[in-house]
Amino acid sequence: MAASPRTGNFAAHLRMLKDRSGRGYDRLGKEAGVSGSSLHRYCSGLSVPTDYRVVHSFAKVCGASAEELRELHRLWALADSDRDAPEVSVEESARTSPVPDGTTPPETGPDRGEVPRRSRFAEKRASRVAVLGAVVAATVLAGFVWLPSASPADDSPAAGDKVLNSPACATVSMGEHDECVREVQTLLVRAKGRLAVDGDFGPETLRRVTAFQVLAGVTARGVVDEDTKKALVAQKASMVTWSPAKVAQRIREVFVEDPGTAVAIARCASFLDPLYVLPNTNGSRNWGVFQISDARLRELGGTPLRAFDPDWNIRAAHRLWSVRHDFHDWPSCQAALKDAPQS
């Protein structure tokens, strides 16, 4: 059996970073806090890590840029979505695996006796595009033309309502790329969320949707359902938060024992973003500046909403540090300290 095309793309990106670093699996594994044999399996496409933090740590020690980290997170999320999908044969994998230049050959048609496989995301997108087209066509026939807002600067109360409440946008979730996603992103930006409005529901949008749901008191599923749509349109929450500079300053004030290392750990964990959310494949999530896990939150008497308060998050992280006076709660970031600014 062979890896899926998405797993192959993810593995190819890992191999690129590994080759560029000029280091072997054992050395990289030691620095990233994972075994060299595990890294070899990930880079070979034989398995996908269940926790993205392993991927993040590996990429950091390889010197990945912020843009490369974002792309790697996207590829990991897509590869992880294939974890429970039916395995494909070697022959099928050969037809759809990435070619050396990083592209994927087009699927062969029915005249070759082969049925193209489509992901559930592609099927959902195609269905929604068709429905949205029908809605627009019906509107034109009714005697007037309406086009969705294309700019996040449109502050009219109804902006984001017409598309988002159409049958095409019953739910909006990870992997979609359409006008439904664009409207969600536009409304998140209006709520002062920091993200790109590109119509692509990737990891960045997932994080912002989840953060908005927590702030608005909506069940944080990471999927834009009816309750989330209403909260977005009504702008029930503001995503205004501390700047990275203010976060770093407060960390230094709290971690007086080792301020430089503490700032580096937080920068590695969340890029000093108080509303950063990282989902794990086991259903748990990490929250805020120091990416405090669900389990740790329960121990500390906190909630995701409290974890988004940067002052509470930083002081909670200091409580964890105080147990042994080290950063044992952030093992995957410690190896990246040499690459992180110590300011």
List the helices and strands and how they pair.
Blueprint: H1 5-21, H2 25-32, H3 36-44, H4 52-61, H5 66-81, H6 90-96, H7 120-141, H8 179-190, H9 203-216, H10 226-234, H11 244-254, H12 259-270, E1 277-279, E2 285-287, E3 292-293, H13 294-300, H14 304-307, H15 310-324, H16 331-334
Helix pairs in contact: 1-5, 2-3, 2-4, 4-5, 11-12, 11-15
The CATH homologous superfamily of the largest domain is called PGBD-like superfamily/PGBD
Q: Residue share in helices?
A: 40-55%
Helix vs. strand class: mainly alpha
Order of helices and strands: HHHHHHHHHHHHEEEHHHH
Describe the structure.
With about 350 residues, this protein is mainly alpha-helical. The chain has 16 helices and 3 strands. The protein has 3 domains: about 90 residues, Orthogonal Bundle (434 Repressor (Amino-terminal Domain)), CATH 1.10.260; about 120 residues, Muramoyl-pentapeptide Carboxypeptidase, domain 1; about 100 residues, Lysozyme (Orthogonal Bundle), CATH 1.10.530.10. It has a 3-stranded antiparallel β-sheet. The C terminus is likely disordered.
